[in-house]
Amino acid sequence: MESRCIICGLEKKGLKVKEDHVIYVIRWFKRNVSRNEKGYDLVVCRDCYKKYSSARSSYNRKLFAYLGIGILATVLWIAVGGIKLYSIAAGIVLIAFMYLLSLLSYIPGLDVKKPALEKGANARSDRSHRRE
Ligand SMILES: [Zn+2]
To answer: For 45-63, what is each residue's pLDDT tens digit?
Structure first.
């Protein structure tokens, strides 16, 4: 199977992207709804790794912020209106909505074991400045 980088979109070899529930849903959608699944292996190529890891951490921050807002609003609703079915249901809907909103900038994880990933990242930071 050919592999394609999720950052630059080129056909390249690289670190494999983890096939999580989001990728699964996208693949399912492409196969059953838009019928244009190309069947590529999704990877992050060596050149894009740095870009990928900053995009991934900004996605993670965004996800936590969105979920935080959703949970906070739910807690406030319950605090103000008391524990009612309506406020709990509205909270669940809001949290689900915030989660979907975060998926607009979804960056999947990598299917690599942690030590291998860190080794790769360290090897690369020898050549460039280390910021974090
Ligand atoms: Zn790339």
So the answer is: 999 999 999 999 999 999 9
Q: Is the pLDDT of residue 129 over 80?
A: no
Q: How far is the CA of 5 from the centre of ligand 1 (A)?
A: 5
Range(s) of the domain holding residue 97: 3-125
Q: For the CA atoms of 37, 44, 95, 72, what is the dihedral angle to 10 degrees? A: -170
Q: How far from 11 is each of 7, 21, 80, CA to CA, in Å?
A: 11, 23, 54
Ligand 1 centroid – CA 18 distance (Å): 16
CA of 3 to the centre of ligand 1 (A): 11
> Rounded to the nearest whole angstrom, what is the distance from the C-alpha of residue 110 to the centroid of ligand 1?
14
In a domain, 97, yes or no: yes
The count of domains in the chain is 1
Q: Encoding tokens for residue 21?
A: 């529930």
